[in-house]
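input
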Amino acid sequence: MAQSNAFKFANNILTNGGYDAADLVGAVGGDSTPAFEAYLSGNQSVADNTAVKAEINTELFDTNSCYDNATNYRFTPTVAGKYFVYCTLETDGGSGTNLNGAYVYIYKNGSSYMWSQADFYNNQIRAESIYISTTIDMNGTTDYLEVYGIVDSISGSGQIFKSGTKGTRFGAYRIIE
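output
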């Protein structure tokens, strides 16, 4: 039986004009690399109410070796474009109802680019996961991204960024040139 470039969908025939799937992907923007995702493999103790870099050290994937998971904990893509960037920072105030507030920051080139917060100053809790996502233009040579966080606790001791594949995570992928 001859292979067809037509697909039947709800009694309508769709054709792809003889192109294969790789041609079609290229026509709509190609792949989404460089891309990476990493997580924090062990709890990270942090100073109270102080911006601290999250040392997200375990890669789930890193398509172009652009994420430094050992020294600077930063993403430096080698291809210019717009990137979708996301992070979940799981924070813990150390005990009981000790957490006043928690913040997560995406830094670009050493400065805060975007941030998100959870405020519990009138009704403290123990722990909170904060999610943030955005799109960021990257030049493909010197631009880099990092994650910082703040854990503000009542006691001023015992604060951590929590670990695990479902805890503190950081990732990015190129969406367009």
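quick obs: The chain is about 5% helix and 50% strand.
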